[in-house]
């Protein structure tokens, strides 16, 4: 019972932190504000999350898992794993472009090394679970490639207005860089991936991802967290 109560409180804290991020930047979302919104004391909040960076890491992990799981179970038939990488990256970028909370989570995570490391770890674990590592150039190439391209991709996203870049342009830069440098792909292969990915995202209903994210901190239906 105590574990279930703890899980429920954690979800409440994470949900309220994410809600506050929709209203303000992480620097101005204090632990006291989060505690007040969650109806608990600051000291109790810190027994779960001593620092805001811990909150960001867990939000990032849950966020990525939600999007990755949606792609795993979506009706889209991915014939090429680089196409799937493009679609996933585009969705994250587009969500950030349309939603202030996502943009702030991205901004906070890129400025925190532990959060960036968590992005990389979660994505690598997912790719291993999907058994597509070899298709992406092998484990070493994948690790080096993701370590190189993800921070650069998020940095471009944060500067997108200054550089006049849209989410798909940023995504294409990432895919080109990864495929050419770490997977040894030809220009024709890269062009095919970018074109096929474009057709998928052109018809992709991103509203269903927003719906999943709006409920990502809800209590689970299996009764374990109730």
What can you tell me about this protein's structure?
With 226 residues, the chain is mostly helical. It folds into two domains: 2-53, Arc Repressor Mutant, subunit A, CATH 1.10.10; 60-214. It is built from twelve helices and no strands. It has helices at residues 2-21, 31-38, 42-48, 52-73, 81-98, 100-110, 113-129, 139-158, 160-163, 167-182, 187-202, 207-214. Helix 1 packs across helix 6. It is elongated and about 60 Å long. The N and C termini lie close together (9 Å). Residues 221-226 have low confidence and may be disordered.
What's the topology here?
Elements (H helix, E strand, L loop, with lengths): L1 H20 L9 H8 L3 H7 L3 H22 L7 H18 L1 H11 L2 H17 L9 H20 L1 H4 L3 H16 L4 H16 L4 H8 L12
Spatial gap, N to C terminus: 9 Å
Number of domains: 2
The ordered H/E elements are: HHHHHHHHHHHH
Average of pLDDT: 83
Helix-strand makeup class: mainly alpha
Report the β-strand fraction as a percent range.
Answer: under 5%
Helical content (DSSP H or I, runs of 4+):
over 70%
Overall form: elongated
Continuous helix count:
12
- Overall strand count: 0
Biggest pleated sheet: none
Unreliable segments (pLDDT under 50, ≥5 consecutive)? 221-226
Q: Report the radius of gyration as a whole number of Å.
A: 18 Å
